[in-house]
Design a protein that fits this description.
Layout: E1 4-11, H1 17-27, H2 36-40, H3 45-49, E2 59-64, E3 71-77, H4 86-94, E4 98-104, H5 111-122, E5 126-132, H6 141-152, E6 160-161, H7 170-180, E7 193-202, E8 206-215, E9 217-219, E10 223-226, E11 232-234, E12 237-241, E13 245-247, E14 250-252, E15 256-260, E16 274-277, E17 296-302, H8 308-321, E18 326-332, E19 336-343, H9 346-360, E20 364-366, E21 373-377, E22 382-385, E23 397-411, H10 416-426, E24 430-437, E25 441-449, H11 450-453, H12 457-464, E26 470-481, E27 483-490, E28 493-494, E29 500-503, H13 504-521, E30 529-535, E31 538-545, H14 561-576, E32 578-581, E33 584-587, H15 593-597
Parallel strand pairs: 1-3, 1-4, 4-5, 5-6
Antiparallel strand pairs: 2-3, 7-8, 7-16, 8-15, 9-14, 10-11, 10-16, 12-13, 12-15, 17-19, 17-20, 18-19, 21-22, 21-23, 23-25, 23-26, 24-25, 27-28, 27-29, 27-30, 30-31, 32-33
Helix pairs in contact: 8-9
The structure holds guanosine-5'-diphosphate.
């Protein structure tokens, strides 16, 4: 048996995963303390700023056990910390034999941590629970123990208490990993079978594929094949993360490392796919591969119409590094040529938008995000619709289906009533069950339409619970629903990009809020502008923007010319941010008005 342990760390954001990893690097001497932050944390700026590390690369360290004096190789695989990336979490967990369950003693167990721990249990991982931040004055170790016991069924006697910051209990944790997590099994002499659990695009080297080898070996010059699409490549480099990328001669059963094989874009090295030897392939791939499907869609249009081509190039470049991003050309009578984009969730959408702005200096107009509907027409035809503008006419529709999720919320009991009210009365949710966890937490399980939680749900939940509640959700399937399309007319002209799909019971109130919001966001013009919402052939709400009395130059009459010029110039710049629709200028933020009324 090799002295190898492969693990992952399950932790909610801010519970101390990075600090613990840093401490492990320090204890094992993999990296100097001084250099640590810069070196290890190489994740994208956006993620760091938002406190969300989507994923950093795996790490290999060596630790000499104080108990048996032997040296062990420990590989730590990171898992993403956001529900948008739950399939990646699943595949990362499939790459290891054990997981540290790290819980902040001052915060208690959070919803996503529970969901991820269940995943780890499904993969038969050995779970090493550890309560972190015991040094904090407000650490509540006893309650956190109870929560772990109640939620995950791990007895409190088995839970380690550590402080990643102060280094307390971290060596004990490493000893526990060695003792409890099984060494990887697998046949080094068998046919190559490796799992792709992540892939990163590098400008100079192409795609770097992160793999866990289950059987066989792989080294430079080997012909490998990705199972899902039958593409083959020649291996240029194999290596491990120490934490820098360090080439090694070969990767064999049990190893975690990377392969470079001239793969051009990450969508060809799909997470969850199996790599095998192209000349001597295995017959069956590893279980659990699935194609990630976008759940949330939005129209994306260049801020300036002439930049369509540039936007296309930018999206293509992003796609090299982001296999979950989907886009195809689209045209909107209101916004011109652009793209329909599919994202894993709202965070993913925000990351894409910000990367376009920062890395490509592109301003884009995004329309309000929506989910994907299945529509059965009266003539028997079935449509998949992810653009409200293309939602068929009500008279032709037999049935509509929308995606549902199982939503779990963990909250202190005092916020229970408000949260139940939010989900059941405002968000069309149905309560499935509740459980207690310790004395200070309750778990609420609901079934809710995905469309109801993609907008402002997270913020509302946080506000209602003073930040204490946490949530997780997973897709459970499509359900029949009473949905209608609400179209918006600005100055009597339909603006397709503002259309929404709403449940019949909420169509009126949403339409009302939307027209009011639009009336606030669209500036006054020289003439009166009616904003109307239409559903089922009828106007269901209307708001009016009053005409502007004076024009901008009025106050300059007689004034000096330069001032007038300046004003005109300023106005011109301001206009860049507006879209002319008919003869009405609509600011970008109006296209996201829906987010504010959801
Ligand atoms: P991550 O989001 O899980 O990677 O969390 P970090 O490792 O970045 O930690 C979040 C915050 O908690 C940082 O400010 C850390 O300094 C702090 N932190 C982490 N571990 C401990 C600990 O054991 N004790 C205390 N007091 N603070 C900690």
């Amino acid at each position: 048996m090799r002295n190898v342990r492969n693990i992952s760390i399950i932790a909610h954001i801010d519970h101390g995963k990075t600090t613990l990893t840093d401490r492990i690097l320090e204890i094992t001497g993999a990296i100097e303390k001084r250099k640590m932050r810069e070196q290890f944390l190489d994740s994208m700026d956006i993620e760091r700023e938002r406190g969300i590390t989507i994923k950093s690369h795996p790490l290999r360290v060596f630790y000499k056990s104080k108990k048996d004096g032997k040296e062990y190789e420990i590989n730590i695989v990171d898992t993403p910390g956001h529900v948008d990336f739950s399939y990646e979490v699943d595949r990362s967990l499939a790459a290891v034999e054990g997981a540290i369950l790290l819980v902040d003693a001052s915060q208690g167990v959070q919803a996503q941590t529970v969901a991820n721990t269940y995943k780890a249990l499904e993969h038969n991982l050995e779970i090493i629970p550890a309560i972190n931040k015991i040094d904090l004055p407000n650490a509540n170790v006893a309650e956190t123990e109870l929560e772990i016991e109640d939620l995950i069924g791990i007895p409190s006697s088995e839970i380690l208490k550590i402080s990643a910051k102060e280094g307390i209990g971290v060596e004990e944790l490493l000893e526990e990993i060695i003792e409890k997590v099984p060494a990887p099994s697998g046949d080094e002499d068998g046919k190559l079978k490796a799992l792709i659990f992540d892939a990163k695009y590098d400008k100079y080297r192409g795609v770097i594929v992160y793999i866990r080898v289950f059987d066989g070996k792989v080294s430079i010059g080997d012909k490998i094949m990705t199972f899902s699409n039958g593409q083959s490549y020649e291996v240029i480099e194999t290596g491990v993360f120490t934490p820098d990328m360090t080439p090694v001669d070969e990767l064999k059963a049990g190893d975690i490392g990377y392969i470079i094989a001239g793969i051009k874009e990450v969508s060809l090295a799909r997470i969850g796919d199996t790599i095998t030897n192209a000349i001597d392939p295995v017959e069956e791939p590893l279980e659990g591969y699935k194609e990630v499907k976008p759940m949330v869609f939005a129209g994306m249009f260049p801020g300036v119409p002439e930049y369509y081509e540039e936007l296309r190039k930018a999206l293509e470049k992003l796609k090299l590094n982001d296999s979950a991003l989907v886009f195809y050309p689209d045209h909107s009578p209101a916004l011109g040529f652009g793209f329909r984009c599919g994202f894993l969730g709202l965070l993913h959408m925000d990351v894409v938008k910000e990367r376009l702005e920062r890395e490509f200096e592109m301003t884009v107009i995004l329309t309000a995000p929506n989910v994907e509907y299945k529509v059965l027409l009266k003539n028997g035809e079935e449509l998949i619709v992810n653009d409200p503008a293309k939602f068929p006419d009500e008279s032709t529709i037999q049935e509509v289906y929308e995606p549902y999720v199982k939503l779990s919320i963990i909250t202190p009991p005092e916020y229970l009533g408000r949260l139940m009210n939010l989900v059941q009365n405002e968000k069309r949710g149905t309560m499935i069950s509740t459980e207690n966890a310790g004395f200070e937490r309750v778990v609420l399980n609901f079934e809710v339409p995905l469309a109801e939680i993609i907008f402002d749900f997270f913020d509302k939940m946080k506000a209602l619970s003073r930040g204490y509640a946490s949530m997780d959700y997973e897709f459970i399937g499509y359900r029949k629903s009473d949905l209608v399309k609400v179209s918006i007319l600005v100055n009597k002209e339909p603006v397709d990009a503002l259309s929404i799909i709403a449940h019949k019971d909420k169509a009126y109130s949403m339409a009302r809020k939307l027209v009011d919001k639009l009336a606030e966001l669209i500036p006054q013009h020289q003439f009166e502008i009616p904003i109307q919402a239409k559903a089922g052939g009828r106007i269901i709400a209307r708001s009016t923007i009053k005409a502007l009395r004076k024009d901008v130059l009025a106050k300059c009459y007689g004034g000096d010319v330069t001032r007038k010029m300046k004003l005109l110039q300023k106005q011109k710049e301001g206009k860049k941010k507006l879209r002319e629709i008919g003869n009405v200028s609509i600011p970008q933020e109006a296209f996201l008005a829906l987010l504010k009324v959801g």
